[in-house]
Amino acid sequence: MRLIGMLDSPFVRRVAISLDLLGVPFEHEPVSVFSTFARFQSINPVVKAPSLVCDDGEVLMDSSLILEFIEATKANGDSLWSQIPVEMQHEMRAVGLALAACEKSAQIIYERNLRPASAQYEPWIERVRGQLSAAYAGLEQQVQIRQSAFAAPRSQASITAAIAWQFTQSMLAAIVPAESHPALVALSVRMESTPEFLQYPPVGPGV
Fold first, then answer.
1. Alpha-helical runs (H) found in 115-155
2. Which candidate, 5, 8, 207, 11, places its Cα nearest to that of 103?
3. Does the domain formed by 2-79 have CATH 3.90.1300.10?
C-alpha cells in the first residue's frame, strides 16, 4: 500500500503514525496537493490528502475512513481504540474535537495564505476562529478529565490530539495560546518524543 501526502498535513501524519503503531506495512510518498498538484492528480484526480493506494490500485480517501478500513482488514484484530464501549465513546469525543480543530486551523491558514487580502471576509474568519478555540477548549478538558483515554501512546485519542495540537501551534500559536492548554502541551511533549512520532515528523512545504 502507498500513503500519499505530506506529513505537515495532520491528517496524513495521523494515518502514517497509526499504520506504524498497528504494524501495517506501507510506503509513504510525500506528494503535495499544492506544489506537486499535477503529480497528485495523476494518482487521485480528487487531489485529497491523505490518499491510500490499496494493493489492487483502488484509492481510498479521508483519514478516518482509511484507518477504519485498516483496522478492519489489515491489523489482525489489533486496534488503537478501547474495546470498552464507554471508553471508546470518550476517545471518539476527543478525536472528533481534535479533527475539528485541524479542519478549522486549515481553514484559517488557507484563508490567510491563499486568498488575496481584498477577498478575505473577516466575519467568517472570526467565526472559524471561535470554532477553533471551542474545539481546543473542549479537547483540553477531555485530556484533563479523561486521563485513561490518553494514558498510552497506542491510543487514537492520544495520537490525534497530539498531532492536532502540534499542527495548530506550528501555524496559529497566537490564536490558541499554549499557556491556556497545559494538558495538551504535556500530551504533545510526551507523544512527540515517541519513536513513531519521531519517525514521521511534520515536514513539508506547508501552504
1. 122-145
2. 11
3. no
E strands present in the chain = 2-4, 27-29, 51-53, 59-61
| Interaxial angle between packed helices 85-114 and 122-145, expressed in degrees from 0 to 180 and rounded to the nearest 10 | 150
Residue 198's nearest CA partner among 65, 16, 39 is 16
Rg (CA), the chain: 17
Domain boundaries, the chain: 2-79, 85-194
∠ CA(96), CA(47), CA(94), 5° rounding? 10
- Its pTM stands at 0.94
**What does DSSP assign to residue 169?**
H
CA-to-CA separations, 14 to 65, 120, 123, 134, 200, in angstroms, rounded: 12, 30, 31, 22, 9
> Could you give the CA distance from residue 29 to residue 5 in angstroms, rounded to a whole number?
6
- For residue range 141-183, what is the model confidence (pLDDT) as tens digits? 999 999 888 988 899 999 999 999 999 999 999 999 999 999 9
User: Is domain 85-194 classified as CATH 3.30.1130.10?
Assistant: no
User: Can you say whether residue 206 is alpha, beta or left, with left for phi > 0 and alpha for psi between -120 and 50 degrees?
Assistant: left
206 pLDDT band, cuts 50/70/90, is: low
* Phi–psi pair at 29, nearest 5 degrees: -115, 110
| The three three-digit cell numbers of residue 180, written as one number | 491556556
